[in-house]
């Protein structure tokens, strides 16, 4: 089963860097602090990423004026959605699924820096 995980190696590297950030900063910071630290880690590890990437939403024959902003798109194929909250909920998973649908990407990683240990979920569309 493990060998069939989509983007296994890339996801492993991303989660590893998230663990590095959490291990260094601990819990209790605002979400933007963790995002800034992740941006630094992606840069020094030469991992390609976009931050706050916008996606438009098509509704019937129009594009809606507001869409989604994914926290990060890493390797041009994985959405990384970060939180700094008490615990992840099914609503956060649904949000990540919506981002995947809008972006036409297949894998989202949902990470939470707000707990004692980093928690994360793979979200596959």
* Global Rg: 14 Å
Major sheet size, sense and barrel closure: 5 strands, mixed
CATH architecture: Alpha-Beta Complex
Whole-number count of domains: 1
User: Would you tell me which CATH topology applies?
Assistant: Lambda Exonuclease, Chain A
Distance between the termini: 17 Å
* Number of separate helices: 3
- Could you estimate the helical fraction of the residues in percent? 25-40%
DSSP strand tally: 7
Low-confidence stretches: none
Percent strand: 25-35%
The helix-strand sequence is HHEEEEEHEE
Give the overall average pLDDT: 95
- Which assembly state applies to the chains in this document? single chain
Shape: globular
Secondary structural class: alpha+beta
Under CATH at level 1, the class stands as Alpha Beta
Overview of the structural elements:
The protein is α+β, with helices and mostly antiparallel strands. It has one domain: Lambda Exonuclease, Chain A (Alpha-Beta Complex). The chain has helices spanning 8-25, 31-44, 90-103, and strands spanning 49-55, 58-59, 62-63, 68-74, 78-83, 107-112, 119-124. The chain has a 5-stranded mixed β-sheet with strand order 1-4-5-6-7, sandwiched between helices. A hairpin with a 3-residue loop joins strand 4 (68-74) and strand 5. Helix 1 (8-25) packs across helix 2. The two termini are 17 Å apart. The relative contact order is 0.19.
Topology:
Blueprint: H1 8-25, H2 31-44, E1 49-55, E2 58-59, E3 62-63, E4 68-74, E5 78-83, H3 90-103, E6 107-112, E7 119-124
Parallel strand pairs: 5-6
Antiparallel strand pairs: 1-4, 2-3, 4-5, 6-7
Helix pairs in contact: 1-2
